[in-house]
Design a protein that fits this description.
CATH architecture: Up-down Bundle
CATH superfamily: YgfB uncharacterised protein family PF03695
Shape: globular
Distance between the termini: 39 Å
Mean pLDDT: 91
Helix content: 55-70%
Strand content: under 5%
Order of helices and strands: HHHHHHHH
Number of strands: 0
Low-confidence stretches: none
CATH topology: Four Helix Bundle (Hemerythrin (Met), subunit A)
Structural class: mainly alpha
């Protein structure tokens, strides 16, 4: 069985540009992950909420439809995996640090918004760790980008924040799957 791959950042960016979408690749992926973590299941609802309902029509750009469909399937599989394979979709490491940092902030912003799209409304259903992660993701999303004089320090900080966002998303997914979250 061949494992399906999601589009990379550049491919998804190209697909979104062809649709004249009002959001970027990192924002879309973050929104989708938040939506799925919160239990969102209606792809139609999600696409309408992020103004990509055009993809629901047969005459939509086939490459864009395929890219977004692969992203949805792969993101769902990553979130459901016991292997913790989820990773924020960000530009390649060869891209400028500023671009990658801004993409992470957009991913976090999208993720938090996606939680709401998926039906999450009350942080009381989260564990104490989950509430702290949610607050930290909100803080990251609101952060203004600034850089240290030492680019290596910035690279390390970006790697740590990216890993925090990845693990935090998985923790929130588990919290929202717990029986107490479903009955709250």
């Amino acid at each position: 069985m061949e494992i399906e791959t999601a589009p990379d950042f550049a491919q998804l960016t190209s697909a979104l540009k062809s649709l004249n979408a009002g959001l970027g690749a990192a924002d879309l992926h973050g929104s989708l992950c938040g939506f799925l973590c919160a239990g969102g299941s209606s792809v139609q609802h999600f696409l309408e909420a992020v103004s990509l309902q055009e993809l629901l029509h047969a005459e939509a750009d086939a490459d864009a439809r395929s890219a977004v469909a692969r992203l949805i399937r792969k993101s769902g599989a990553d979130l459901d995996s016991d292997q913790f394979t989820l990773a924020p979709l960000l530009p390649d490491d060869e891209r400028p640090l500023l671009e990658r940092t801004e993409a992470l902030l957009q991913w976090c912003q999208g993720f938090v918004g996606g939680l709401g799209l998926g039906g999450f409304a009350d942080e009381k259903v989260l564990s104490e760790d989950g509430r702290e992660v949610l607050r930290d993701l909100l803080e990251i999303a609101r952060t203004q980008v600034s850089h240290d004089a030492d680019e290596e320090v910035d690279e390390i900080a970006l790697a740590e924040l990216t890993e925090f966002a990845r693990v935090g998303a998985m923790l929130l997914r588990e919290d929202l799957r717990s029986p107490t979250a479903r009955t709250a």
